[in-house]
Known about the structure:
Blueprint: H1 12-29, H2 31-34, H3 37-40, H4 61-64, H5 68-103, H6 112-143, H7 153-164, H8 168-195, H9 201-229, H10 234-252, H11 256-265, H12 271-283, H13 293-301, H14 308-316, H15 320-323
The structure holds fe (ii) ion (FE2) (2 copies).
Amino acid sequence: xxxxxxxxxxxxxxxxxxxxxxxxxxxxxxxxxxxxxxxxxxxxxxxxxxxxxxxxxxxxxxxxxxxxxxxxxxxxxxxxxxxxxxxxxxxxxxxxxxxxxxxxxxxxxxxxxxxxxxxxxxxxxxxxxxxxxxxxxxxxxxxxxxxxxxxxxxxxxxxxxxxxxxxxxxxxxxxxxxxxxxxxxxxxxxxxxxxxxxxxxxxxxxxxxxxxxxxxxxxxxxxxxxxxxxxxxxxxxxxxxxxxxxxxxxxxxxxxxxxxxxxxxxxxxxxxxxxxxxxxxxxxxxxxxxxxxxxxxxxxxxxxxxxxxxxxxxxxxxxxxxxxx
Length: 325
Ligand SMILES: [Fe+2]
Ligand SMILES: [Fe+2]
């Protein structure tokens, strides 16, 4: 049952333990305190800047037929776009939600440990933003490339949704759903790059450093969202579930518009075919199966999984069947 304003969270002790435990280790493990990747490692001219497997058209014959130098320039731009998307997630999605929680925009997260956990996450995300900008500057300078990037799908959709939201609370809940999904899924997003021994070492290590923080504080957002959910009515819970499913699609989008701007900038001869191929793949509007275990786990722990609307929303984008059974 939803709690009314001013009522205390019945599960606060368990939740507080999770948040307190995370807070107490933050001073030791936060990458902002132990980092320095950009000082430790040098840029290697001969190393590829990004894995080909992460290009949405990597298997297309027109891409495979490009000269090695042209493919390498596309990979550098892929790295630039990857970091630009990271900056969008940190600055436009997660940070505004953290500041909103500190301001008291949503109920259930007002005890001292919750506030401290949110403040620590803000520091972590600011450091990730710095790291993404610093390492991107290195690659842009080393390769002499400065690709213009179209707006990312995640930012575009969040802005459109904000404009349609009927109230401040609806907008805050919608943004919380997007941030929760981003925080639950970003580790998978970072994982393959952080383990790829074939790419530029400084790129791999900067992503590994980011991943370490996300693995530590990702559970905080799930905990905070769970506490907010206890204060929502049935209508709000259903809207929150639908927003979680939509956000998973937005987060996993292959960003064909961004790729279009990159391929135009590089004047890649087959760009129309490559963009059409990526656009068609994105049109399915479904997530890639196999990457959403943390999201379905959150739905189960928060009780959202028991709601028919959640199952319908998750199934409609292809999440539930592969992750939750
Ligand atoms: Fe981050
Ligand atoms: Fe994070």
